Amino acid sequence: MSLSKNKTCWPGLIQAYKPWLPVTEKTPIITLHEGATPLIPARSISNQIGRNISVYLKYDGLNPTGSFKDRGMTMAISKAKEQGCEAVICASTGNTSASAAAYAKRAGMRAFVLIPDGYVAQGKLAQAFVYGAEVLAIKGNFDEALKIVQEISNKYPVNLVNSVNPFRLQGQKTAAFEIIENLGNAPDFLCIPMGNAGNITAYWMGFNEYLKAKKSNKLPKMMGFQASGSAPLVNNKKIENPETIATAIRIGNPVNWDNALKVKKESNGLFKDVSDKEIIEAYKLLGKEEGIFCEPASAASVAGLLKIKEEIPENSNVVCVLTGNGLKDPDCAIKNNEAIFHQGLSAELETIAKKMGF
Ligand code: F0G
Fold first, then answer.
1. Taking the complete model, does pTM exceed 0.90, yes or no?
2. 6 pLDDT exceeds 90?
């Protein structure tokens, strides 16, 4: 059977949304069949907020490498391949590097990734290794890494695949299309974590394109959340040494700064910070009550919603974007849970039954 004849499988987002994306017949499509992630009703969180407010979770941690970055990467790598590039580079807090490595390798390219040494979650580092990236860990933070890769890509024949690459945002906007298709319209509010602010920019682009095409008849208010120790957009001030448990969004000088402010203004939205404690509370709540394991940065969207819930009018619907999978950061999970964990038990039925309370 020809490899391209798998007709039952979701084709990946470039095939699915071709007319909406800057691709041509000549573009080689590099795909891991990303996209089409579920929009999951969050019953427990909706009940907690009350007032007939419906909360949904866009679980983008179910993409092939476990984060929303795959949406942008299928586009960025396909276009890089089309242009004949042989190597790509990115700075990353972990997810971009995992995704860039997977797609670049699938396209037969080299993948260089610059990461802040010691600040990338274990699962993400493991992915970069397994996908065969060339990993360069620097004594510096994400912002410093991004500056270096921007200069390197200007000087040497390597293609930059951070979210300054416009094809990334084109791919990422498809998440907004999927939400509109699932709900039959745009939601009233979109809650989203912000790091470099590429994703909030991409979602806004997607919502606007579908409105223009009359596939929806409203736009959501865009609610962007940052960790308190890394909240340059909330405070409108660069941060030299950003800190947060949510290492994915440990960014002090976002490249999409102006775009983010534009989104906030145009959507009549709001930016707010959430503390690490609030992030972890939301992270645990999602696991224990909704059965959803996301990474800490993703839980910032739910922490933010819980913080501003009084500002949401009754009968509204809200989508919280869960950008990454919980398995990315096992250390955080092991340190932050209320699990009942009895260790070293003898392998006897009576002992086990007793521990179970029988
Ligand atoms: N959530 C997760 C899980 C992320 O990995 C990131 C960004 C964001 C949210 C923020 O998205 O930058 O578009 O505002 N991670 C980048 C990386 C920086 O290198 O993986 P943004």
1. yes
2. no
